[in-house]
Structure formats: C-alpha cells, structure tokens
C-alpha cells in the first residue's frame, strides 16, 4: 500500500486479490491508534479483548456496548489511514437481529467506526447480510471465539477433528456468502486456515492460524511485550515494553525521591514567559477535539 488515503473494505479485498498481506492490530485508545496507524497498520481492531487487556477481567464477557463505543471513539480520533473496526461485545447481538442492528449502529454512530466485527459463523450469517444491506460492513470471526469461553470449555484450539474442520469451512462459506468483508480465523490449524483462505472471496485475518491467511492480527499489547509473563505460541514479541516501562518509571521514582527531578529547566520562572500558553498533555496528531 503506497496511498495515504483511508483504507476501506474494498482496499482490503484488492489487497487479497493482489496477494498483499493485511496487517491488523488491536487498539484501545487514541495515542496507541496514532502510533499503530503511523507505523503502517492497515486495520485497527477495537477488540473486546480490552475487557482483559485494559479492564483486567479474565474473559471478554463483561464488556458492554457503552464501553466499546467509548474506546472506539478514542481510536477513531487517533487513526488517520487505518480502517477502524468496532467489536460487538458479548450479548450485544446474540439475542436478536434487531438487537444486533441497533448495537452495530451505535458503534458506527457513537463510536465513529468504519465497520463492526462479530463472533460466530453460519449462525450469524443472517445478521451479517442484514448489516451489509443497511450499509454496515461486517467482519466475521470463527474458530476460537472468546465470547463462547464457557461453551468451548476454555480458550482452546478449534477444528482439530474432521467434524470441526468441516464446520469451520461451512461457517466461513456462510459468512462469505452473506457478504462479510473479512473473516478472523482464531486458533485453528494452519492447513485448514489456508484452505478456508483459498475458498472464500473475502480476506481472512489469522491469529494463531498460520501463514496461509490473507492477513494477521495480534493484540498490540502482546506484540509489544507489555506483560512479561504472557507468551503464547502464536505471539511474536517485537519489543519488551513492559520491562522498558518499569525501568523508566523506576528511574523517575528515584529522581523524585532524590530531588533530581524537576530541574530548573523543567520549572517555570516568574516574569513574561510564565504567562505564555504551555502545552499541557500530548494529544494524538489529527485528533478531533
Ligand atoms: O477482541 C479482539 O481483540 C479480537 C482479536 C484478537 C481478533 O477479537
């Protein structure tokens, strides 16, 4: 991708057709959105993983549509080029088509997202078709679907037996035919992910699904090594920010305690310059305030 215009669902399909891989990351706030966007991520997913990563829950189940809309708004302010996807949280779409339509509309209208994502395969095909007909692009999500944590009996690799593989293919076909613009394939064997990717016309975005997908997604905090104790097989850490942050904060604490911070240059003096406006906190470039 050389263009700086906004990535949209058609750009993503063209990338698949050209064999260009799609880079997706999760984002939950405006500052991270700006950084990931400037670094070239094509899609920013405001994932309900924020229930675990940001809120500290053990699953994604407690996340509400209001919380998703809040984080989507922040990410949408920070992203200039990337396509912003809002994740539909648990029980914001499972009760009825109408409920799903209303809540997807909230993520678009209140959250400023460019599309929504929902978990489930053939069971969600009708909702996907209705969303698309209403002008709301929808991304599917099959394999390990974290909102079904209790039904699945935990976070487990899916599609390992022949029946499971056949179901995954059927689910992917149903979502593709319903008009999903992309499908997340989470924690499934690489060979079935490759077969699905070759079968469906829309791009597949893998997480723990091998190289045969049309794109990859990771939780940004995992890729950046924010939690030093968390290293599942499918994550590659590109930084050790958890360690870096702790070292930086430790140095700050030491300086505060010893009186080495702030220096005169970091303090204001009386006189003319004291009345001048000063920058207060950083805000992502391009943020709409
Ligand atoms: O919630 C999320 O962040 C996700 C991705 C990991 C695919 O669904």
Topology (SSEs and partners):
Elements: H1 9-18, E1 22-26, H2 30-38, E2 43-46, H3 50-53, H4 65-78, E3 83-87, H5 97-109, E4 115-117, H6 125-133, E5 138-143, H7 149-152, H8 162-178, E6 182-186, H9 190-199, E7 204-207, E8 215-218, H10 220-223, H11 241-258, H12 272-275
Parallel strand pairs: 1-2, 1-8, 2-3, 3-4, 4-5, 5-6, 6-7, 7-8
Bound molecules: 3-methyl-2-oxobutanoic acid (KIV).
Written overview of the protein:
By secondary structure, the protein is an alpha/beta fold. The protein folds into 2 domains: 9-223, TIM Barrel (Alpha-Beta Barrel); 241-289, no CATH class. 40% of the residues lie in helices and 12% in strands. It is built from 12 helices and 8 strands. The chain has helices at 9-18, 30-38, 50-53, 65-78, 97-109, 125-133, 149-152, 162-178, 190-199, 220-223, 241-258, 272-275; strands spanning 22-26, 43-46, 83-87, 115-117, 138-143, 182-186, 204-207, 215-218. Strands 1-2-3-4-5-6-7-8 form an 8-stranded parallel beta barrel, surrounded by 7 helices. β6 (182-186), α9 and β7 form a beta-alpha-beta unit. The longest helix is centred in the last third of the chain and has 18 residues, at 241-258. It is globular, with a radius of gyration of 21 Å. The mean pLDDT is 95. Bound molecules: 3-methyl-2-oxobutanoic acid. 3-methyl-2-oxobutanoic acid (KIV) binds next to β6.
